[in-house]
Amino acid sequence: MKRIAKATKDRIIYLNKKNNSVTYLLSGKTRSLNNPEEEVQLDTYLSLVYDYHYPAERISVCQPVKMGSATKEADIIVYADDACNAPYLIVECKKKGVSSNVFEGAVDQGFSYASATMAKFIWVTDGDNNAYYEVFPHAIGERDENILPDIPSHNSEQKVGYKFRKQFYRLFNAPLKMAPFLKYLFQKPLFTQTLAYSVLFVAFMVLFSKLSVMYFSEVYKVLRYFWENHGADFGWIYNTMAFVSSGLAMVVSSRLQLLPKSVRPKRSTLFWLTVLLFIPIWFVGAEYRSVWWNWQHYSDMNHKAWIYLEPMFFGLPLQMIVVAVILWLSQLRFGHTKTAQLPQKSSRKRKAKSA
Known about the structure:
Blueprint: H1 2-9, E1 13-16, E2 21-24, E3 29-32, H2 36-50, E4 59-67, E5 70-79, E6 87-93, H3 100-117, E7 121-125, E8 130-134, H4 160-176, H5 180-186, H6 189-214, H7 216-229, H8 234-255, H9 267-286, H10 295-300, H11 306-334, H12 347-354
Parallel strand pairs: 6-7
Antiparallel strand pairs: 1-2, 2-3, 4-5, 5-6, 7-8
């Protein structure tokens, strides 16, 4: 409801409560919300504007598509240009709870429209289930190698973050076919965003652990005073690495656009967000008593970096829960309140007014 109120205020749509219909003001088309499929279409349209940040004047609903001698109607087409001459994304909407056969039929229909319009991406949704595809012009029948974790947001197709997410998802997609539940999780942005942060955190911890072992004599020179006078031990090094790794993982995730904008930290909040992410790692590390954080244990270990890595791996599930909660609360608080960037002038808007 927040997005509907926002879109009404921004004059993107007009909601007629008397006859339960919606008018898309930039195209002048009115649809009845008594049809469950139209409810899904409206929600998807607003998601394209407010979640994916596509300019509303580039989005057309119920758009005729010429297919040979016949003309059919695509639910939503997003264009790559302001003149709406270059279709970019085809969206097919179905009512909630449709059968898998109907949903797969919508996927095929979306590819038919993409073939006719030369669109680059397809999104099929019933409001609960989603399928995202990149269109391969040389293999229009492909349904596996071209699967996507999500459609690109506005102007993000060529950015490193989206390319990384796409390749990461496709890399795991094939083996995940044998594990339907894991494949289901990989289709959820909350899971993939949490996993992406966690992979970066582990990578930084492994790197710093290896460096600490390689250059331990230099590290000890820095910490010698604290080691001899204040009871410092290997846990101090572990905590320092974990704190820095948490902050770096958050910053890199943000720069690669692996996290939603609402949790991309500003300098003023980065420290406190890093503290929050560090707490579960510190909590588990604190449970490793003096029998772990001492010289004798370190000297006896065959793989000395493991003195830092084992506590980290035991604490990682707790940190992933914290990350998931932060992301979930962020989506709950900010996900439906983002402002669309609407131009003051639009040829399609003028046409709508004259109509």
